[in-house]
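F.,

This is the one I mentioned.
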């Protein structure tokens, strides 16, 4: 998930966008973004199933989710729009942990 987050962050990072992109590179970048988004959604679903089955270290995973949301940056960025639904899936678990609720 971290790798997919980095790929998506590159797309949403305004400093990485170029104004002089050639017409042939735009569809390639768009396809790469679509693929990264599709893989992100797959990872989100897979991580939810693994979390429910106890196949991931729960405390570490929840810490990573919260850290990712905090590092996402401004609310205007698209990366936060991807991370908030992930965090909302685990809202009940965050509220049950005094450490994470802070």
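My design for it:
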């Amino acid at each position: 998930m971290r790798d997919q987050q980095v790929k998506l962050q590159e797309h949403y990072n305004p400093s990485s966008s170029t104004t002089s992109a050639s017409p042939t590179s735009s569809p390639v970048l768009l396809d790469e973004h679509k693929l990264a988004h599709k893989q992100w959604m797959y990872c989100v679903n897979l991580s939810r199933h693994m979390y429910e089955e106890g196949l991931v270290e729960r405390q570490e995973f929840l810490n990573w989710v919260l850290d990712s949301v905090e590092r996402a940056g401004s609310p205007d960025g698209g990366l936060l729009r991807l991370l908030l639904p992930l965090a909302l899936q685990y809202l009940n678990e965050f509220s049950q942990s005094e450490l994470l609720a802070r």
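The mean pLDDT is 83.

Talk soon.
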